[in-house]
Amino acid sequence: MNAPPSPRRGFIARMTEAAVARPGLFLLVSAILAGVSVWAASHLEIRSDLKELLPSDLPSVREVQKLIQRVGGDGTVLVVIQSLDGASGLKNAESMAPVLTRDFLALGPQEIRSVESNVLPVKAYYEEHWPLFVGLDDLTKARDTVRQEVRKRKLAANPLGGDLFEDDEAPAAQKPAETPSWMDPKQPLPRELVAQRFDRYVDGYLVHPDRSSLTLVLRPAGTSLGVRESEALMARLHAVADKHVQELKDKHLRIGWGGTFPTFIAEYEAIIGDVAGTAVLVVTLVLGSILLFFRDLRSTASLGLAVLVAVAVTFGLTWLVIGYLNTQTAFLGAIVVGNGINYGLIYLARVKQLRQRGDSLSDSCVDGAVTTAKATLLASAATSVSFGVLIIAANRGFRHFGFIGGIGMLLCWVFTFTLVPALLAIFEKLRGAPRQKPASSGERYVPPLSRLFARPRAIVWTFALLTVLAAISFGLQLRRGAMEHNLDNLSNELKGQDTLKADNQRANDALGKSLAGAYALLDSREEADAFCAVIRERMKQPPNDKLIDGCDTISSVLPAQQPQKLAVIREIVAELPDSLLRRLSDPAQRERLRTVRDQLAAQRPIGPEDAPPTLLDRLRERDGTLGRIAAVTAKGSAELEIAENLQNFVKAVRNVPINGQLHDATGDKVIFADLLKDIEVEGPRTTFLSFAGVLLLVFILFRNVRTSLEVVGSLTVGVILMCGGAAALGLKINFFNFIVFPITFGVAVDYGANVAARVKERGGDVIGSMAEVGPAVALCSWTSIIGYGTLLYSLNRALRSFGWYAMVGEVTTIVTALVLLPGLLLLARPRGSASSPG
Hints:
Elements: H1 11-21, H2 23-41, E1 45-47, H3 59-70, E2 77-83, H4 90-105, E3 112-116, H5 120-128, H6 136-157, H7 190-196, E4 206-207, E5 213-220, H8 227-242, H9 245-250, E6 253-258, H10 260-294, H11 297-321, E7 324-326, H12 332-340, H13 342-357, H14 361-388, H15 396-431, H16 446-452, H17 456-480, H18 498-511, E8 517-521, H19 525-538, E9 548-552, H20 562-574, H21 578-581, H22 587-601, H23 613-617, E10 629-634, H24 643-652, E11 656-658, E12 661-663, H25 668-702, H26 705-728, H27 740-761, H28 766-789, H29 797-827
Parallel strand pairs: 1-7
Antiparallel strand pairs: 2-5, 2-6, 3-5, 4-5, 8-10, 9-10, 11-12
Helix pairs in contact: 1-2, 1-14, 1-15, 2-11, 2-15, 5-7, 6-20, 8-10, 10-11, 10-12, 10-28, 11-12, 11-15, 12-15, 12-28, 13-14, 13-28, 14-15, 14-25, 14-27, 17-26, 17-29, 20-22, 24-25, 25-26, 25-27, 26-27, 26-29, 27-28, 27-29, 28-29
């Protein structure tokens, strides 16, 4: 007969006794909380835009918000019309382009701002109005040159006519003006120069180099940041294309889609699929591992349900406090499950040992809670602190990650010690007590552990050597560059979307230009022109000359100073009457000047109604205002996926002085650059704060300087080994996986804390404590590895790198907790107290 339990007054003991005595109440409350939380969590949306990771008060984020409000975003839909017959069917594709263009525009300006299908109207526009795009100074110089040439020819024809110029400076005394290119017979005519810019376009269309397809560029009126809006727009565009299914079939054509809108939708759907898939995978693997470890279905089910309720409440609170998820926090469910289940593993392992000893369920649950609650609470608090320090970061991605992770860890601990004993009690009432197995407290592990730790000093020196090597490896990586500088390695990789990827690449190959760049929002046309004037000067200096292709304002479409230019143009025309041109002896030169003169004479003021809509589109605001936008375009060869090039490009479009004030351009490239810069500031600070918080909690728990230093020391060694191992594997730090440092401090201290706490409880018996708690601690690390490992299936490369880095950290920290820490504890105690009692 078991001895009556001794009275317990602690809160944990009373709570556990209540859970076992009234399990229905605890289960009802948990079910209500879970139901409400699942309903709330179902309203969470995932925002995959990078600006959701940065502080809302950051200048680039504010400017992007203004860009969306004033312009509506710069998203595109690229429509590929491809011939199934190859290049021989290009004419069929060309015949469909105007049909689809008309139907897309018929959706209305509230849906489609413009469609760029053929550049011939743009070519004709610049050919017709080229004189107005010549600078006023250049026109004035051209006029002066013409006047000088006319005077020279008049003097040559009538040497005695010098008195005709008596009121002017003698031509011989004037400085010769630079001859305009259109007067030089060796140079192409202005219209020929314009035409050369459009030579690459086949019949004016954006044709792929293999000449089997062409591309239409659609600029929707909205932004591609909203999933529902993007899906609705794409549905309408698909409906337009579907109306021509038979015609496309008859002409052996197919329609493909690319651009930011289709890619955004595909990435969102992939993220949703990844989140669901990783959640199912991690729960299955974790519960399967627990079942194999405990060989007890009721323990596995009890702990699994408790953790799932905690996760549900966590994301319900997330909806109330934050309202959405980002690409970093969307996968936290798997991480919370993998790490949050650790507290229950330690608790159930102790309960199982007590039940096998013959204790009742109530006594086992209470004794197990009292024994493990303190150490697991430290682990939970440390993990929550590690997540929590992220909340003070300016980076919104960090803050949200910290809130969800911190709350999740604490809730897992709470539901472990409230719901698990209640569920065990319900199972016992329904199925009776589990079949008792021979008592085992890990005695079978004592002999191999005794052999392993026979020479603790050698263990410590071995880890000291490994730590030095790891530090050198990480130091060399820091010297070479530990940060990931190839942004392609941080982007999303669409899986199962081969057609979309191929069509998107085909469309971009057909464009022959870059769509990447940045926008500056100014207050007037004059300021926009001044912005571009500065950018053009900066373009002349390296490295900007290899990064920036151009800067456009409304003056690039509707020339500035038209009245002044037209006045000078009329003066040039007046200097070239037919009577003068007939005197030219060179027929080719005579015809050349007549052609240019007639083109000059045809000039008139031009306005928005004269320009092709595609030229005005990206410079027009939602309210129709033109002139206050400056658009900077990157070169196609700029390679902005390389961080150094990106930072230089962003530097070039920032701090542009205009009228005594500095102005910045913004866009997704600027946001990404700010994200990289932000991590360089936030990463080290949050890592230090996390380490300091964990150190403080360890000292509070053990109240012993030496034990605390041993626990923290083994953890630190584990983290250094993680850094060295990651460097050896070629893993680099990026804007996402940097959080592995503070998180590893919080999660991995659990392992050492449980080992040290059990040693303390057993009066310094290191080997016996290891035999008792070691397997459960190892299982804790294994479930965390499962949680991180499922991230390797994510479409986001940065998230995968986080998974790899975290798994390396789990391996190194569990090894230091189960090998190095016991070695340190053995060295700190007399040899006689290190063995398990016989």
